[in-house]
Request: fold
Amino acid sequence: MNVEELNVDETIGRVGKILCEHDRKKGILIHSFQKIQEDFGYLPDDVLNKLAKKLSLPLAEIYSVASFYKQFHFSPRGKKVVRVCTGTACHVRGAQKVLTALEDEFGISDGETTPDLTMTLETVGCVGCCGLAPVATVNEDVVGDITRKKLDDLINSIKED
Ligand code: FES
Reply:
């Protein structure tokens, strides 16, 4: 078939159909990931395996889509997710000291979770509270103006929960 023989409407229709199908599958996957993560707190391998079979999709595609989104996790998360802001304002006002203190106290590094699932420690870019630097978030809460005393209180509250 040469270019003159192409039926533009038909071609666009076919491409549109393929894109719709692709978007639909992606939508189903993302919704499934959200539900799985709600139930398990992360995306367990065996559950993703079952999902791949159920949707007749290659497992690699499942992981490829899930890993594109930062919101999905492939290992269990801590009860408290502590994110230390390492944006410029926080960096200048001691974010590294906060991070190091938490790493030393809980024996984990950035991106890791304690074996007892008490805490997951992460770093994050500016969270929009630069006036309160240095800042960390604990689950949905913001902790600002982190002094040594505040840091000790934070550590104790994480251990006590
Ligand atoms: S740099 Fe940390 S809140 Fe903006």
Notes: The first strand starts at residue 80 and ends at 85. The radius of gyration is 22 Å. Helices lie at 8-40, 45-55, 59-68, 88-92, 95-106, 148-160.
